Amino acid sequence: MAGLVQAPVWGLLRSVQTENPGRFLLLDHDPDHDLECGSEISPAAADAAVRVLVAGEESQLAVRGGTVLVPRLSRVVKSAAVSEASVRLVSGGTVLVTGASGVLAGVVARHLVAEHGVEHLLLASRRGPDAPGAAELVADLEAAGASVTVAACDVADRDAVRELLAGVPAEVPLRGVVHTAGVVDDGVVEGLSDERVERVLAPKVDAAWHLHELTRDMGLEAFVLYSSVAATLGAGGQGSYAAANAFLDALAQHRHAHGLPALSLAWGLWAQASGITQNLNETDLARMDRLGIIPMATEDALALFDRSIHAERAALLPVRLDLKAFGGRSMPVPSVLRQLVRGPIRKAAAGNGSGPGTEWRDRVAMVAPEERERLVLDLVRTHVATVLGRTDPYGIEERRALKELGFDSLTAVELRNQLSNITGLRLPTTLVFDHPTPAAIADVLLKQIDGAPQTTAQDIMSEIDKLEAALADIDWADAGAAVVSTRLRGLLTKWGRNSGSDTEDLGTASADELFSILDGELER
């Protein structure tokens, strides 16, 4: 149960990570599975977890039974040919489809009748028979030989769901559920309110839980949840949507572990417009294209639906990915995709004067001041065009307000992230709002580049001498001394990683000391 409660938080934080690269790390420790130390994480596991997180190559970890695990997606090998009966979602009875006024619900309802032989459908939506397109859908289904009941039901209301299920005729008992209901309310996490989050969670989380509990003893053969890839990859600007779908994925795993039928389908982008995607503009589509997410034709999506229902997995991602697209990205490849994407993996900008951005800053620093201004402005205009899905960066007017070009809170964050990654500079999340034109942003970058001091080894040695003198006078009985010690360990570890030199083994540090090191890393 704890995993179900925490799953939406994990989904939300994946979106937070997307909106704020390099600033948040996720570590999931389950005391019930740590066989070595009971409720305490073992020193070895803590050591391994801190090493991985501090190295910056992983953004999510889980510790189970003293073992550090990282998330990876892998391909599902196509199953051997199956009989027509095994392809069917259910062997008989009634199938409930929620969110029935939505486009995807209509698509799957028609598919269930035409290809799965479903003869009895219960279609539930808030408006029921009064929903646009409901009459046409019923006519199509009945013409195909199915009996159809359309009900007005808010599936987020437990009593309403109970009443809906009680109305299913005993001669055609409920045998399957396909839960497609859902809404979106996009916006960066800082702009979300309790009301906005609740609006998105209710039709997915509350409804799925009610359906789970109220059908648990009904002998279902299928329980399918329509989730989203946003929950797995983390979608900037869709924190609440990612949270809701992360719960669906976790619920499917929970049911599967308890011997109940369950399948969560974390869909990618459908080419066919739906209530979830109909408001996507060119900028949104360009963003998804940069993520390597390719729209799926309806027939391809339904083929994946059919393959999924007999794949014997609790959660799957039916999605088309252009894995080659990651080779040209300015942003790092999500760690969860690294088993699928070949080639070097770039780390997110650390902003510490080394690593990503160093080469670009060095190149800019070598040219004349007037040429430097042009290079920086061209960089800004190029990424403005990229974020907006435009192909001509020189069509971006340098003194025109970005808001007039179509920027919103999400595109503002995305531009900041791209510029931060390519330059290695620490840029505020309010960059676009504080400096609302390409020229103003270029000026900010120039000032940071020009003001960045060139630290030499001799400068560092001088500071180390001062530090050594200060350490000689420290009272090691002082509680703060342990913090100093672990902070220094963390600095040494980080420096050793960047320089390629050997570093002190952290294995002798306590769990508290190791997490203090991690805290020190996150504070910078």
Poorly predicted residue ranges = 34-39, 348-354, 500-504
End-to-end Cα distance: 35 Å
Q: What is the overall shape?
A: globular
Q: CATH fold name of the largest domain, please?
A: Rossmann fold
Reading off the top of the CATH hierarchy, the class of the largest domain is best stated as Alpha Beta
Percentage of residues in helical conformation: 40-55%
CATH architecture annotation of the largest domain: 3-Layer(aba) Sandwich
GO biological process, one term: fatty acid biosynthetic process
Organism: Streptomyces antioxidans
GO molecular function, one term: phosphopantetheine binding
Domain Carrier: 374-449
Describe the structure.
With about 525 residues, this protein is α/β, with parallel strands linked by helices. It folds into four domains: about 1-70, no CATH class; about 95-320, Rossmann fold (3-Layer(aba) Sandwich), CATH 3.40.50; about 355-450, ACP-like (Non-ribosomal Peptide Synthetase Peptidyl Carrier Protein, Chain A), CATH 1.10.1200.10; about 455-490, no CATH class. The protein is about 45% helix and about 10% strand. A seven-stranded parallel sheet has the order 6-5-4-7-8-9-11, sandwiched between helices. Mean pLDDT is about 80; it is low at about 35-40, about 350-355 and about 500-505.
Outline of this structure?
Keywords: Multifunctional enzyme, Phosphopantetheine, Phosphoprotein, Transferase. The chain is an alpha/beta fold and 524 residues long.
